[in-house]
Amino acid sequence: MLHIVNKSPFEKDAFTSCMGHASSSSTVLLIEDGVFAALKGSAVADQLSKAKVVALQSDVAARGIEANLAEGIELVDYAGFVDLVTENRTVQSWV
Amino acid sequence: MSEIKKFLYVNRKAPYGTVYALESLEVVLIGAAFDQDVRLIFMDDGVFQIKKGQNAEASGMKNFSPTYNALGDYDVNQIYVEKESLEARGLTLDDLMDLTYEDEDDDWAEKKSIRLLSADEIRDLMEESDVVLSF
């Protein structure tokens, strides 16, 4: 299934809760302030290996953190966002 | 005129996700017209406000980060960043914008506006301020 996180992991526990509940076969999409969870070497970076993590390219670019992302983070555009929603049977938004 | 007060702006929110960062910047620029002693703190997710390389074009939002470069021209040159906040986010001083000002007491030499402080030093800065504005 698809999980979507849109809150900063340093301000809210949405990302940590998400990673604690996501199966290894699920995809976690980071959007808006959720993209900060993809930072390399941060206090929450060790949780990124628990599932496939992708981030919305335009929100990453807005915040200027492309060069600071952890290895293995895939970027998607808005069309890729739509693909993820349609490919997965269910979506959980950790609002 | 009344005495000069120490104004402290505490910035704790990331830009774009909420409007706090932009609102704070506007208040700082307005307040700069009143000849007060102005200090800015960037801590917690607020450190992302002055991250280098922001490009909001594809997201359809306005990239207001270039405006931070103007702070030095308004004599807002005491900008403090919390070390612990940067470290928790995998960032260093090199990831932040090069904010500078020209020192009129030193033949207009260009100097850095940003200084790193520990949480303890931030606490002291808060204690010695006359006015604290929280964003």
Provide a brief overview of the structure.
Chain A contains 3 helices and 5 strands; from the N terminus they run E-H-E-E-H-E-H-E. By secondary structure, chain A is α/β, with parallel strands linked by helices.
**Any idea of the CATH class of chain A?**
Alpha Beta
Structure annotation, total helices of chain B:
3
The Rg value of chain B, from CA coordinates, equals 15 Å
Output mean pLDDT of chain B: 96
Q: Percent helix among the residues of chain B?
A: 10-25%
Mean pLDDT of chain A: 97
Q: What structural class do you assign from the helix and strand content of chain B?
A: alpha/beta
Q: Using a beta-carbon cutoff below 8 angstroms, give the protein chain pair with the largest interface and the number of residues from each chain.
A: A-B, 26 and 27 residues
Could you say what the CATH architecture of chain A is?
3-Layer(aba) Sandwich
CATH architecture of chain B: 3-Layer(aba) Sandwich
Helix and strand arrangement:
The complex is a heterodimer of chains A (95) and B (135).
Chain A: E1 2-5, H1 14-21, E2 27-30, E3 52-56, H2 57-62, E4 74-76, H3 78-87, E5 91-93
Parallel strand pairs in A: 1-2, 1-5, 2-3, 3-4
Chain B: E1 6-11, H1 20-31, E2 37-42, E3 78-82, H2 83-88, E4 100-103, E5 109-112, E6 114-117, H3 119-127, E7 131-134
